[in-house]
Design brief:
CATH topology: Glutaredoxin
Shape: globular
Order of helices and strands: EHEEEHE
CATH class: Alpha Beta
Strand content: 15-25%
Number of helices: 2
Strand order of the largest sheet: 2-1-3-4-5
Number of domains: 1
Distance between the termini: 21 Å
């Protein structure tokens, strides 16, 4: 399942590698960028959110592993409330989770 309309993947381009990751994901997930997410000690930062769904914040995201984010995007799209109970398909991204905010 592809990302649904309204799913937002926001990448910090102030982090080294953030702009490269945003370019790598263009066309596969709905990418937005921001200058800073204020977690500079662990780049790259990624936020995922959508109306009516749980929001996620990841740090230490590997800019050379866009496939992990693409896998997470499919899980997120398939979860009506955004709650992902088994993130193993998202590879190492699941170890970068800082927090999940309920919808």
């Amino acid at each position: 399942m592809a990302p649904t309309t309204g799913d937002r993947f926001i990448i910090c381009t102030g982090c080294t590698g953030g702009a490269d990751l945003a370019r790598a994901l263009k066309g596969s997930v709905p990418v937005e960028t921001t200058d800073c997410m204020n977690v500079c000690d662990s780049p790259v930062s990624l936020a995922v959110r959508a109306e009516g769904k749980a929001a996620y914040l990841f740090t230490g995201v590997d800019p050379d592993a866009p496939e992990d984010i693409e896998a997470f995007a499919k899980l997120y799209a398939a979860a009506p409330d955004g709650q992902i109970m088994d993130a193993r398909p998202a590879g190492n991204l699941r170890f970068c989770l800082v927090g999940r905010i309920p919808a």
